[in-house]
Amino acid sequence: MDALTRRRFLRASGVVGAAALATGGAVMGLAELLGTATNDQPAWTRQKVSRLVLVTLYGGNDGLNTVIPYADPAYHSARPELAYPPEQVLHLDASLGLNPAMRRMKQAWDNKRLAIVLGVEYPSPNRSHFRSMDIWQSATPTKPATTGWIGRWLDGTKASREVAVSFEPVLPPVLAGQARVGSCISYQGFSLPTWIDAATVSALGRPQAGEPEMQARAANSYADLVTMEHVIGGADKPAGSVSTDDGVSGPATGTGGDSEIAGQLELVARCVEVGVPTRVYSVSLGGFDLHADERDAHQYLLGQLDSALGSFLDRMARTEAGRQVVVVVYSEFGRRVRANASDGTDHGTAAPILVAGARVAGGFYGEQPSLTDLDDGDLKASTDFRDVYGTVLATVLRADPERYLDGFRPHLLPLFPPG
Question: What is the full DSSP assignment across 82-123?
Answer without folding.
Answer: TPPPGGGSEESSSS-EE-TT-HHHHHHHHTT-EEEEEEEE-S
